[in-house]
Amino acid sequence: MNVERIGKVLEKTEADALLLCDPSAIFYLTGRKISPGERFLGLLLNKEERPKLFLNILFPFEPCEGLDVIEYSDTDDYVKLLRPHLKEDWVLGVDKDLPARFLLPILKQKLVRDCIDGSLPVDRTRAIKDEEELRKMRRSSQINDEAMGIFKTLVKEGITEKQVADQIPEIYRSLGAKSNSFDSIVAFGKNAADPHHMPDDTVLKEGDAVLFDVGCIYEDYCSDMTRTFFYKKGPTPEQKRIYELVKKANEDAEAYVKAGVRLCDIDSVARNVIKEGGYGPYFTHRLGHFIGTQVHEYGDVSQSFTVPAEAGNTFSIEPGIYYPEILGCRIEDLVIVTEDGCEVLNHYPHEIEIIR
Ligand SMILES: [Mn+2]
User: For ligand 1, a single-atom ion, which residues have Cβ within 5 Å?
Assistant: First the structure.
């Protein structure tokens, strides 16, 4: 149980109580990992009483000091169990991921007066990493840098994307990580122009771009990095222009990041570089996403997040240009926001690199 984190979360809410169910939020607050499948799982927090965890007896649970566990079985009614811990005139902060099948009976049986978003206070607390979390984030990205140096050596005449991608988890494990943080993207040639391409039987050929978007998990914390290489032949003049624009977009955005600047403005810095270079319509996604124990956590570096970056925020900076038939290119690093700038967690070079 992390009493300090729970305190910070409760400070941020106007609700009388919070009902959380996202296993990653529960892990963040209690240190316990539970995968409840389709069963109800709820962590009930309020300022007056001890935290309560509603847990199906199917799931083993190591006792946690300061946390009351309310066990139930498949034949119990969770609404009945919840009722004595809620009040009819309360506003309940509900997890954004609470399935509607669990929320609807709570509303129908009027357990509380109203429901609001209960995830936001947790998400906002999680978005600011503490020193211990930052240490793990750094190490996770260090392993990812090292791994990228190995991944590029897998790229050989006649190999397929899938054959390369299949070797990635084992390489992460050999470097001390716990496998991938998401399904690796390995894209050859024109497949690189599809931002979420999934490795298939495409065979590598001379002159192809080779895009790796990869990450691992180290002590529960995720890394995420993208590099785009060229195989055997250097880029054509147009490919070079595209690559250099993406590189500049990445580096200008990273140079702009510091506590107090708005997330949307960081996005604009990168987007303007690409727009002014003439490829605006081909940068089709947000500049970045927050990251931690999940690869995508609450918070985007995009036009829709107008809040300022705060010290301890960790997110990706990943501009890309996806210009069909010519080149798909993305350069992605993770950064930690500091008071006067940012710490870039990835050190694998940005320069054009030809794999021979
Ligand atoms: Mn990413």
Answer: 224, 316
